[in-house]
UniProtKB/TrEMBL annotation:
Protein's name in the database: Sca4
Organism, as annotated: Rickettsia helvetica
Length: 358
């Protein structure tokens, strides 16, 4: 039928038998038939992969990701791409695989959509396709717990892609849109939204914990006070803003104020902890430097009281090697100052041979 209609249309255009309106109508019908055939061919490939007994979940995921990428790269209209992607996730959801395996496969689909080249697929187009991917899951005939797990997988794929922050922010919204537009009952929609929210909130917690670890792991002696703290604050802002919006949007208006207040309180407490840990970086840096200079002077002065080589060697071993409480900076500065003083004494000895040097 597709070939016949294409042949008739081509012949009609060449002979100018059809009016422009007739040509347009025939082209629309041909596009529709082509899209349906492409969808059928794609679903067949997906089924072949899903039911291949020789391939494990990882291989199935990789192969279905490749099919997804081919659909996204195709010259078809975004509406057609969306319909095909919806068919892919619906087929995966309806398969007889274990729920965790299906979730892993749709996670791969989510990751592929999120990371696809921006030059061939705009952000609004990605959002439309992501919504369709979720719609395919939501409307599948599989059990609700399986659909919840797959919805989580789809959203996890977005966060794990570590792509552009704007995409990370918009894709979970698109998943919510797919849930809202699916033909399922209200309680199922709420369950799927809750599953999606769980992933977004977990992503927010992860980002916060990672930033906390980064800041706590900073060596205060190595901090560039203004520059480093500013960058850490900016990192925190960038990381949090991409996951806060989806979390807030997932809740009803009644819950919004409460949820917003809770998140702001958490962030405020987090910032206060950072402030109390670091205090004023400039003051701390000055204190550390002052303490280091004082300790170096004390060690050099004490070393000067040792008259014999044996005493000096014993002092160096006890204070600069065995004493693990000294910082690397103090050790290096002390050794450097001792060497400078020794060089000065040797220079003086050359000028005045009566001076004794060790």
């Amino acid at each position: 039928k597709q070939k016949l209609l294409g042949s008739v249309l081509k012949k009609g255009v060449e002979t100018q038998v059809f009016s422009p309106e007739q040509q347009q109508l025939m082209q629309q019908n041909l596009d529709k038939i082509t899209a349906e055939q492409t969808k059928k061919d794609t679903i067949k490939k997906v089924n072949d992969i899903l039911f291949d007994p020789l391939s494990n979940t990882e291989l199935k995921t990789t192969n279905i990701q490749a099919i997804t990428a081919n659909v996204l790269d195709s010259p078809a209209k975004v509406e057609v791409k969306s319909e095909i992607i919806e068919g892919i996730t619906n087929t995966v959801a309806g398969s007889s695989l274990e729920a965790k395996d299906k979730a892993e496969i749709v996670k791969g689909v989510g990751k592929t959509i999120a990371t696809h080249s921006d030059t061939s697929l705009s952000l609004p187009d990605k959002a439309l396709i992501m919504a369709s991917a979720e719609k395919g899951i939501a409307e599948s005939k599989t059990d609700l717990p399986d659909r919840e797990l797959m919805t989580k997988g789809l959203v996890e794929g977005v966060y794990e892609s570590k792509t552009d922050p704007e995409i990370t922010k918009e894709m979970p919204k698109a998943v919510s849109s797919g849930i809202n537009n699916s033909n399922i009952n209200g309680s199922e929609k709420e369950a799927l939204k809750k599953a999606k929210d769980t992933v977004s909130e977990a992503a927010l917690d992860r980002e916060t914990q990672n930033l906390n670890k980064d800041l706590q792991g900073q060596n205060i002696e190595e901090i560039q006070p203004h520059h480093d703290i500013y960058n850490k604050s900016q990192d925190m802002t960038d990381a949090l803003k991409n996951v806060i919006d989806p979390v807030l949007e997932a809740h009803s208006e009644e819950q919004m104020a409460k949820k917003t207040s809770s998140i702001l309180n958490d962030i405020s407490s987090y910032v206060e902890r950072i402030k109390s840990t670091f205090r004023d970086p400039l003051d701390i840096a000055k204190e550390k430097k002052k303490e280091s200079i004082k300790k170096v002077d004390e060690l050099v002065k004490e070393f000067g009281t040792k008259s014999s080589t044996e005493e000096q060697q014993s002092f160096i071993k006890a204070n600069l090697i065995d004493d693990k409480t000294l910082s690397k900076e103090v050790r290096l500065q002390t050794i450097d100052k001792l060497l400078q003083e020794q060089e000065q004494k040797q220079a003086e000895a050359v000028e005045n041979p009566s001076i004794k040097t060790e």
